[in-house]
Amino acid sequence: MSSAQAEVSGADERQIASSRRAPYLGTWIEILVSSVLGMVASLVLAIDAVVLAADPNAALSCNISAKISCAAVGVSWQAEIFGFPNAFLGLLAEPVITTVAVAAIGGVRFPRWFLVAAQAVSTVGFVFAYWLFFQAYFVIGALCPWCLLITVTTTLIFFSFTRINLLSGNYGERIQRVLERPLRVYYLDTGIVVLLLAVLAAMVALRYL
To answer: 161: how many CB neighbours lie within 10 A of its CB?
Structure first.
């Protein structure tokens, strides 16, 4: 084999390896880590919900003070919007998101309808998480550390799916032309996430710390 043929063969191999590589790998890893953390938090909250159902005055490990207390949030009506602990929703949703992330990291290419549906579900979770945060902050008057973790992970998952759909052109050609450079998408959504989480941190620090 000549050197020119070897170079062509090597280029072909690199192209094949690149095509097999999961697109948006870093974003999928972010979704994976966030969903695993959310699953752990949901599991802890589900166990706490069972404990509180048996004894509403139970001393939970995350009862740090009157203002930072899982129990204060857990016994409120907002903690059981659908007649059962909200944490059970996390136990159902987070493993699915984890599975999707693992499959994507492994090279599975999902169709447009699937990614748009995932975006819709993550949007519902995002809105619900922030509704619960504002209920805890302004109505209940106490915050739950594990709930705050879920708020953060839900934020990261929502913006990660948004990024993937924008970069994949799943929202139409007009939006794709506006965001034609991938770096614009990364800078835009990263800036929004950092600002949003900074506002959350400031709200918690000013009122509860």
So the answer is: 24
Res. 175 pLDDT band, cuts 50 70 90: low
Per domain, the residue ranges of the chain are 23-208
**For residues 121 and 93, is the Cβ–Cβ distance under 8 A?**
yes
Question: Where does residue 196 fall: left (phi above 0), alpha (psi -120 to 50 degrees), or beta otherwise?
Answer: alpha
Tell the CATH topology of 23-208. de novo design (two linked rop proteins) (1.20.1440)
Per-residue pLDDT tens digits for 21-56:
567 899 999 999 999 999 999 999 999 999 999 998
pTM given for the model = 0.84
Radius of gyration from C-alpha coordinates of the chain: 21
